[in-house]
Amino acid sequence: MKSNVIMVVMSGVIVLASGCSKDATKPPRVSSKHDLAVEAESTHKAINVGSHYWKVERESGPPHLLAFPSDNTVFDRKRITGDSPGVEYQVTFEQPGTYYLWVKGKGEAGGASVIPGLDGKLLAENADFMGFFPSEFSWIGALHDTGKRAALQIDTAGEHLVSFWMLEDGFRFDKFMITADSNRVPE
Ligand SMILES: [Ca+2]
């Protein structure tokens, strides 16, 4: 049993290492005029907690991250930033302002969800992306509990950290998009 746990952790570390070498030097940029789409599997950093981790899936459909294992675990919202596996992406914002966050994902059994964050903090209390289709990837741009747009309030131009934490496992995470245009709908 112990050797299984070590293998899981090691595979998580490999994901982390490949993400670092790809994106550590130059974070992708977003501006008031140019949207940014980021592949979920191109993490800057992945944080494993316990037996759960973000597994890179390349065999079925587009490359994506799977909140693994899918055993109906629901993480505690109140301790999500410390107790749930997270993935982090460095993004350079060219201007301060309000940017909108979209997530493209898929949910096994309709019970998969993810919580977004900015600079290590939740976007809002009880904020999560939920309700993805189980059989195909789809975009969601509103937070489930409030129905409000997922918005990143950027006070200072420059580099910021966009994070996602597991809420319910089984979530498949293809990519996310950041745009300053409130009317933009990704395809
Ligand atoms: Ca992807």
Structural description of this entry:
The chain has a single domain (5-179), classed as Jelly Rolls. Helix content is 14%, strand content 40%. The chain has 2 helices and 14 strands, in the order H-E-E-E-E-E-H-E-E-E-E-E-E-E-E-E. A hairpin with a 2-residue loop joins strand 8 and strand 9 (121-122). The longest helix has 22 residues, at 2-23. The relative contact order is 0.24. Calcium ion binds at residues 39-41, 62-64, 174-175.
Write the layout of secondary structure elements.
Blueprint: H1 2-23, E1 29-30, E2 36-39, E3 45-47, E4 53-57, E5 64-68, H2 80-83, E6 86-93, E7 97-107, E8 113-118, E9 121-122, E10 129-130, E11 138-140, E12 151-154, E13 158-168, E14 171-179
Parallel strand pairs: 1-6
Antiparallel strand pairs: 2-14, 3-6, 4-5, 5-14, 6-13, 7-11, 7-12, 7-14, 8-9, 8-10, 8-13
This protein binds calcium ion.
